[in-house]
Predict the 3D structure of the following.
Amino acid sequence: MSMETIKNEFLADLSAVEDAKQLSAFWAKYFSKEGQIQKLMGGIKNVPNEEKKAYGQAVNEVKVWAQGLYDEKKTEVEKKEMMARYEEETVDVTLPADHVASANLHPLTSIRNEIIGIFAGMGFDVFEGPEIEDDDHNFTRLNVLKDHPSRDMQDTFWLTEDLLLRTHTSPGQIRVMDAKKPPIKVLVPGKVFRSDSDATHSPMFSQMEGLVVDEHITLCDLQGMLDQFVKAMFKGDVKTRLRPSYFPFTEPSVEVDVSCFKCGGCGCSLCKGTGWIEVLGGGIVNNKVLENCGIDSTKYSGLAFGIGMERITMLKYGINHMGKLFENDIEFLKQFKA
Ligand code: DAH
């Protein structure tokens, strides 16, 4: 085939190319090893010696010319295909978005996280103990002696003569002190169980235990920390007051009240007219408890507190029945979207 014929055929074929598939067939026909241009190159062997140079030059020119046209076509095809893809993938940004139902944390979980966040800011770690405890951790080593009323069948869910569903998170104190020597600064959150059920009690509820053991820990440390806690939790200018109380594992023991954040202390339905709301129990760790864990009570002292998380949640969100926190009523829970 003469060069002219090949060039004409090349042009005719090229103008018929419209997409990538045709382009690659076209490339194979002209540029591959068995392609027309290669064949032209191979034709040199049939050319008389004196014409070889001119022939070679002419084939080279055809090759450069053909490559240039091919490259142009390639760019054109690629652009065309890209535009077609853009067209196909166009998104109408003015369309309304699909509704995605998002979940939210249970109010108790939010409060638990919030409490941990506040105390973590004061350097507390978090430890979690088992929900099934033995008598030793839940009672005896916490100085709750054999005849104490909280051991009563009425209050405690006993599983065997020795095992029970923990009635409070305080056994976490024993487990932490067994595992680690002072300084200790730890929170123990968790579920606890008591045979009790009414508007403000449920057989399962949750507590947050706090324990600090170090040299020179006093009741002032307890009040200072709890002051910080209630200010962060209930926002604004709330105060705490300590009232004497009794727990076997603390001596002295206190009940901690917070000034009513609803009425500012003037007296309202939330604080039952007293201006104060009881929020937690605490005290100085009883020396007997420290000694039960092998901690020298002449060198170290400790503070402890137990926060009822449902109570804090109910106070904070104005919930009047504890059952609401466990019913899993979606309409109720939806209100707590963060
Ligand atoms: N364990 C107590 C309860 O369940 C709460 C409590 C009171 C925990 C005083 C403490 C504390 O650590 O010091 O009622």
